[in-house]
Design brief:
single chain, 199 residues, alpha/beta, Rossmann fold, DNA polymerase, domain 1, 2 domains, 15% strand
Length: 199
């Protein structure tokens, strides 16, 4: 079987409010203002596909949120998104590989974050056979093409794949392709699923 794990809030806890808090401190823009304006919109999508640079992304987001930050201040806030490793999920991934299954990570991400989390959480790469990143692939979830590309590269059919993600739109798009997709709502979702679905 092929097991596909999202990164954020599946393997590693993330919190956008931590990002906004740092940006608020630097820019003096009230946190409530940033929270009300913050959306995962076009700049995110372009950035996660590698279609705009980190600097362009920082400029676009700074403009959209009405905050004046240096690139260094923006980056410091952007990296604050990472909270900590979900060791329960890492343990499941390691067990699956020991049982002979294929384990990969599929993440919508960007160059700035990739300069941080691989060094901060080396356990992720150690627990996966391969890591697929949107900005390297030039495509992102929930677009069908990213799942099809991954299945093609891995040599598995959708029927032989199980996908874990915390985003409902990503789950639905994977299910439409015939992939078994599990909505992750907390730290126990992954271990509980495997407790009920023994490999």
């Amino acid at each position: 079987m092929l097991y596909i794990f999202d990164l954020g809030n599946v393997i590693v806890d993330i919190d956008f409010n931590r990002v906004l808090g740092v940006w608020s401190d630097y820019s003096r823009v009230p946190l409530a203002n940033l929270q009300s304006k913050f959306t995962i919109g076009e700049p995110f999508h372009l950035h996660e596909r590698g279609q705009i640079s980190d600097e362009q992304f920082a400029q676009r987001l700074g403009h959209d949120l009405g905050m004046a930050l240096s690139y260094e201040q923006f980056t410091t806030g952007w990296q604050a998104i990472f909270v900590g490793l979900r060791k329960e999920t890492i343990a499941v991934m390691q067990a699956l590989r020991e049982q002979g299954h294929r384990v990969v990570v599929l993440s919508n991400t960007n160059q700035l974050h990739c300069e941080f989390w691989p060094d901060e959480y080396p356990e992720v790469a150690q627990a996966a056979d391969k890591i697929y990143l949107s900005q390297q692939m030039g495509m992102r979830k929930p677009d069908a093409e990213i799942y099809l590309k991954l299945l093609e590269e891995e040599g598995f059919s959708a029927d032989d794949a199980v996908f874990f993600d915390d985003n409902e739109e990503n789950i639905k798009s994977a299910q439409q392709l015939g992939i078994t997709a599990i909505m992750v709502t907390g730290k126990q979702t992954v271990p509980d699923w495997f407790a009920k679905n023994r490999c």
